[in-house]
Fold:
Amino acid sequence: MIHNQTTDLIANHRSIRAFKPQALTEDQLTTLYTAASHTSSSMFMQQFSILHVTDEQKRAAVREIANQPYVGKDGDLLIFIADLHRNQQIRQQLGLDDGRLHTTDIFFQAVEDTVLAVQNVVTAAESLGLGAVVLGSVNNDPAALVKALGLPKLTFPVLGLQVGIPDQEPQLKPRLPLNFVAFENDYPTDFKVSDLKDYDQVVQTYYDLRDANRRIDSFTKQISGKKLTADPAKRDGLAQLLRDQGLALDWQ
Amino acid sequence: MIHNQTTDLIANHRSIRAFKPQALTEDQLTTLYTAASHTSSSMFMQQFSILHVTDEQKRAAVREIANQPYVGKDGDLLIFIADLHRNQQIRQQLGLDDGRLHTTDIFFQAVEDTVLAVQNVVTAAESLGLGAVVLGSVNNDPAALVKALGLPKLTFPVLGLQVGIPDQEPQLKPRLPLNFVAFENDYPTDFKVSDLKDYDQVVQTYYDLRDANRRIDSFTKQISGKKLTADPAKRDGLAQLLRDQGLALDWQ
Structure:
């Protein structure tokens, strides 16, 4: 690969889950928001918002939903929201109907706007010497999250981000070799799980080094295990929550 | 904001839609794939793939679907795929059922993995002096795209990316002021469209400078106009296509 400050930063990404007990400065926050706002946006509709959660009660509520002790603790908690409410307000205040705002198509565009912005914030944060972890766990209970944050209809909190001054130095997590994820012209139909033998060993070694006392499985054993079988209960309330929020109403 | 090479790069993002007639080098491609592969991944399930489309027939097919002349022309075309097929293969070849692979929850996680990776590739590309444009338009006809690319069940092409050596220098597109997109603790309920008056003027001026002969509207006029009302026909086949692909089957 070609090395420069930015490509090295991206290729050396680690999720950080332990932070020093210090909040971001206003300047740091503004930098992260600026990175988000300059992200590509579908049809220039700018359909995302960021909620910076500093209220201790709200932080505790999100932490309980995420069920991860570092969420809303040290560092700052940002919630990235697919936001069709703002554009609905624009249309309604101009005397118009909601147009296509309730379609799956526009909802997906908003989700894409939002997730692209998340990654720009992660990269910007890391370039400032900060660390971050993307929090899919905030949607362990989508309805509870929307309620805890007091979000209006036509919004959906897609991902959270805990960001702050790193208080750990994790090893780089080994990713699938590129030949398993990048293809030319044809999606391969000859995948063999046995081809992942070497990679499985690499992942196993990574976990053994990270914590010799805690047994964590190889990649294929993770995919064949409880990550894809355990009953996540309220995570499956997602479709219903989106419906309640007035989103993707044509999905059936 | 705080300036460094990476934050400046992100804050100065422009979508590039005109490229020199030169393909990426292997080294450049590997750098982009490496950036993608080191992106955060939900539960470490690495549920995305990239298809590099170099075949002229396939490029033409995608261009026709996207209905944009620069798609699959100069530069390189990448299609980013939410990929649950690979993990299904792992499970099936190990004698297991599909577990939660057909749920909305896992599908959304795959979409998030994929879109985060897209942004890392954009940023990496720009750091190499390349330009890129994210292509939501590849899903103007989701079923046709899946067919044209020969994608298996449990995959979904989320976004495309046209990337190459820039052959234009567009102005920076003015984004919504940060106070409209980033909030502390409470999502604002007092949005007034009239508050966007100044921003509307900025956007109007941007378009006037970009192309004095072509009238493009202010932000609020775009939101109140055909972007959210025109009948996109096949884009609304999205939910059905996902169902056909075996994705998010619990959505109803």
Observations:
- Chain A has two domains: 5-171+233-244, 178-226.
